[in-house]
Amino acid sequence: MPSDELKPNLRDLPLFAALSVAELRQLMRQSAVRGYKRNDLIFMEGEAYAGLYLVLSGRIKVFKTSPEGKEQIIHLLGPRELFADVPLFTGGPYPVTAQALEDTRLLFIPRQAFLDLLRGSSEICMRMLGAFAKRMRQLVNLVESLSLKDVTARLARYLADEAKRTGTNTVLLPVSKANLAAFLGTIPETLSRSLHDLENRGIIAVQGKQIIIQNRSLLQELAG
């Protein structure tokens, strides 16, 4: 059973903010905290669906693998983010694979427990619809980026989005270059060349895993 110290984490999330104390306690009783080491698989594509997850700490990647073994990362997720929610409504198995990128703690919420919660709260239903709409926009942007833009433009879009999300001109890469390359649909060597290209043009400065945006307007122009 999850410890009481995790309850504020849920109450601070917009999705769960409308829960009463009784509803929150019921959800916590039915949920479980699970720990994963770096590279541990959380679930695999095609595995029977059991429920959804909330990241408490650490980072995970959600990806699909082609028959040839090529990996395409769909989402890179960190604390306070929910995932594996789509099969909750569509049924069927997990459509993707999820893996821990570092030591990670997740809150697992069984499918039936969450469905029971939704049936009793129109507010949470509306917030779930909002989350799905946001996820759909992200997927549309990913498809557009992979099909219509070169790697440098994809990288520029990623950096511009991260800067907007954090409200700063400094982007801390949350994952390895290999994983970021897979997310951008390329290989590490090509990603490195794109980073050097942006740096040589005075758009960014690279300091290890920290990217400092020096010319935001040019970066945005490249991102499209």
When the domains are counted, the total is: 2
The low-pLDDT segments are: 1-8
**CATH architecture label of the largest domain:** Sandwich
Radius of gyration: 19 Å
Overall body shape: globular
Structural class: alpha+beta
What is the helix content? 40-55%
Head-to-tail CA distance between termini: 47 Å
Overall description:
Helix 6 crosses helix 9 (216-223) and helix 7 (177-183) crosses helix 8 (188-200). This protein has 2 domains: 4-145, Jelly Rolls (Sandwich); 150-223, Orthogonal Bundle (Arc Repressor Mutant, subunit A). The chain has helices at residues 7-11, 21-30, 87-90, 111-119, 122-148, 151-166, 177-183, 188-200, 216-223, and strands spanning 32-36, 41-43, 51-57, 60-65, 71-77, 82-83, 97-100, 104-110, 170-172, 204-207, 210-213. It has 224 residues and is an alpha+beta fold. A 4-stranded antiparallel beta sheet has the order 1-8-3-6. A 4-stranded antiparallel beta sheet has the order 2-7-4-5, with helices on one face. It starts with 6 loop residues before the first helix and ends with a helix. The chain contains 9 helices and 11 strands.
